Amino acid sequence: MTQTHKSSLTPLIAANWKMHGDMSWIDKVTELDALLPKNEREHVDLLLCPPFTMVSTMHVLGSPLSIYIGAQNCHADVSGAHTGEVSAEMLADAGASYVIIGHSERRAAGETNADVRAKAEAAKRAGLTAIVCVGESLAQREVGEAIATVLAQIEASVPDFVDVIAYEPIWAIGTGKVPTMDDIADMHAAIRSAVGPNVRILYGGSVKPANAQDILAVANVNGALIGGASLEMDSLAAIARSAPRK
Ligand code: PGA
């Protein structure tokens, strides 16, 4: 895959706050805006994915600042007797424009490839951009099955219309471990071959200010999905600054 494809895709810097934060955190939207003057963010799209409770308020703050707000999960149905669930339509109504789907923490809790596919369909139905997560376990990598595992997950859980995929090796999430840049390049090239030139392929798993520049410079890496380092706006801003300029 050539740099030509990469340069046609604006890097997406996506924060996955997981189950962290309260309403005092909404100020992080304006904090992020203040940390990144226009000339330091023209080269990226910025996305914050807080817990459901903060989506609406953060959308109101983020929208005029061109900071996108997303959610971390949705239900596949529009509505129904699903106590405790939130539909993609409800997220869109609250102002979300993205939704993370099939994160490994949710797959580990029982979400199947079929569930993930249905949720991606729901996101499209509601007008949301789905970020579908895939990634191998350490055991799968150690036996040389990382790429085959991820391509099988894509085949089973990522509909053709999806335009953002996050490659997140499970063993790299929250551990401080990252694959070598060659391994990231090989995986992203394999995903690129499977999904074509127009899909943004994010890397996720222990992205920090110290390694972001190297990771984001790898061919076919079109942004990052960031957990721990996205909770502080100065480190998220540093990661955004380190994304390559077109
Ligand atoms: P991490 O999480 O950056 O804390 O490793 C990434 C993720 O789970 O999306």
Top keywords for this entry?
single chain; 246 residues; alpha/beta; TIM Barrel; 8-stranded parallel β-barrel; 15% strand
Topology:
Blueprint: H1 3-7, E1 12-16, H2 28-35, E2 45-49, H3 52-62, E3 67-71, H4 88-94, E4 98-101, H5 104-108, H6 113-126, E5 129-134, H7 138-142, H8 146-157, E6 164-167, H9 181-195, E7 200-204, H10 209-216, E8 223-226, H11 233-241
Parallel strand pairs: 1-2, 1-8, 2-3, 3-4, 4-5, 5-6, 6-7, 7-8
Helix pairs in contact: 2-11, 4-6, 8-9, 10-11
The structure holds 2-phosphoglycolic acid.
What would your notes on this structure say?
The protein has one domain (12-241): TIM Barrel. The model is unreliable at 1-7 (pLDDT under 50). The radius of gyration is 17 Å and the shape is globular. It is α/β, with parallel strands linked by helices and 246 residues long. The longest helix has 15 residues, at 181-195. The chain contains eleven helices and eight strands. The structure holds 2-phosphoglycolic acid (PGA).
Share of residues in strands: 15-25%
Distance between the termini: 17 Å
> How many individual domains?
1
The total strand number stands at 8
Give me the CATH fold name: TIM Barrel
Oligomer category: single chain
Number of helices: 11
User: In which range does the helix fraction lie?
Assistant: 40-55%
CATH homologous superfamily, by name? Aldolase class I
Spatial arrangement of strands, main beta sheet: 1-2-3-4-5-6-7-8
User: What are the bound molecules?
Assistant: 2-phosphoglycolic acid
Structural class of the secondary structure composition?
alpha/beta
Please write the CATH class name. Answer: Alpha Beta
The secondary-structure element order is HEHEHEHEHHEHHEHEHEH
